Amino acid sequence: MAKPKNSDRIVVDNSNLSELKSTCDEAVERILSRQVDDNSQAKQLGYAPFRASHRHADLRLALGFTASAVMIGTSIWSYFVEKEWSRNKYACGVAVVVYAVLSALQMLDSYMQGNTIFTGTRKMLSNRIETERIVLESPPLPKATKKAAPTSPDAKPLLTPPAYTLHLHYTRKSNKGKSLLGSKNSSLPLGHLGEWFTQEGEFVEAIFEHRLLSALLKAIGQ
């Protein structure tokens, strides 16, 4: 897990690819949804933020809270109110079934979300009000590549960190979403992880932000 040493630095374990990928995935939403400052890279690139959607996360939280409330409430009732097993076993059985169903729905929603790490919308005003929507997916990282050292065949091979690539689904609509003005599906290759993680494992967000915003704006034609 990423550990901020102070309010500005994020340091991770360079040997843990899952940790490296999670840090990048979390940064995507943070960068794309935060407000643009006058002196920021986003302002210089002409980027307008998207409003992030947390529908899947909110749904799973609601399902988990409901399932826990049902089990805890039933347990308290059976312990303090109706202690006889012959009388409370049916209610306890129903609670177990409800808990299992809600937990299954949580797993189903997580499966449906798949590799999606960001869903966002924004309204743009040109000659009319247009709504843009993007969905970004972060597939599993490929393996690191090895290249022979150029100086000597006996030297240790050079290891290039895995490349980080996002998949973009973009739509632009008007007339309250009734008219489709454009859509795109493309890949956003941002580079390999070693380009924004230092040897000490520090995440250089400024480099990652520039790569992400530049690739996104180019892909959607802005």
TrEMBL record:
Organism superkingdom: Eukaryota
TM region(s), chain numbering: 61-81
Main subcellular location: endoplasmic reticulum
Topology class, membrane: Multi-pass membrane protein
Keyword terms of this UniProt record: Endoplasmic reticulum, Membrane, Transmembrane, Transmembrane helix
Biological process, per Gene Ontology: protein targeting to ER; signal peptide processing
Keyword flag Lipid biosynthesis: no
GO cellular component, one term: signal peptidase complex
Intracellular or extracellular location(s): Endoplasmic reticulum membrane
Family designation: Belongs to the SPCS2 family.
Role according to the record: Component of the signal peptidase complex (SPC) which catalyzes the cleavage of N-terminal signal sequences from nascent proteins as they are translocated into the lumen of the endoplasmic reticulum. Enhances the enzymatic activity of SPC and facilitates the interactions between different components of the translocation site.
Protein name (database record): Signal peptidase complex subunit 2
UniProt organism field: Moesziomyces aphidis
